[in-house]
Design a protein that fits this description.
- Strands 1, 2, 3, 4, 5, 6, 7 and 8 form an 8-stranded mixed sheet that branches.
- This protein has 4 helices and 8 strands; from the N terminus they run βββββαββαβαα.
- It starts with 8 loop residues before the first strand and ends with a helix.
- A hairpin with a 4-residue loop joins strand 6 and strand 7.
- The radius of gyration is 16 Å and the shape is globular.
Length: 183
């Protein structure tokens, strides 16, 4: 279903919220913009109070790629944990390289557009439950943009929004493209 007109996003972002000291590790992640047949998009909401401060944010579901795991296996595992979703990968949206200076970490996040096929039981990790109070949320595109804007009141929210809003816009563009191809 991949269109020849689709060009993947590649962003290189800096952390302007916390001062740079050094980067001592990289983290590769697989993340998704998940949609359903009714036009809803699925995210995770985190309510946290940690070294980043107190913040309520939304994020695309996904997470770290474990040793020996490929990107799509990591994506399926993470989406099952966080959303309880069985899905199909429709397309690759692109890659974002960004930094969390506070954690001395470079992130390389690979984003996919995925269609939800069914939902079952979520299986979040203990940290996702206890530290982040992670919950699944479904939103329309415009609602998601408003959530990212509201979360930008916090430093962490601004870091997440600078990474995720361009990806969300790319996903919307791709969904519109797919819809036009089907007409």
């Amino acid at each position: 279903m991949k269109s020849k007109e689709n060009t993947e996003l590649f962003l290189e972002l800096k952390d302007r919220e916390w001062p740079y000291e050094y980067i001592d590790h990289d983290r590769e992640t697989a993340r998704a913009v998940v949609f359903d047949e009714k036009g809803f998009l699925y995210f995770v909401r985190a309510e946290r109070n940690d070294e980043f401060g107190t913040a309520v944010t939304i994020e695309t579901p996904g997470g770290g790629v474990e040793p020996g795991e490929d990107l799509q296996s990591a994506l399926r595992r993470e989406l099952k944990e966080e959303l309880g979703v069985k899905m199909e990968v429709i397309d690759s949206l692109g890659t974002v390289s960004d930094y969390y200076n506070l954690l001395h970490r470079h992130n390389l996040s690979h984003y996919y557009l995925c269609r939800a096929l069914s939902f079952g039981e979520r299986n979040p990790t203990e940290a996702e439950q206890k530290e982040f109070h992670l919950s699944a949320v479904k939103l329309r595109y415009e609602e998601a943009l408003r959530e990212y804007e509201a979360a930008s009141a916090s430093r962490l929210g601004r870091l997440i929004a600078q990474r995720e809003v361009p990806v969300l816009k790319k996903a919307k563009e791709r969904l519109d493209q797919i819809s036009a191809e089907l007409d």
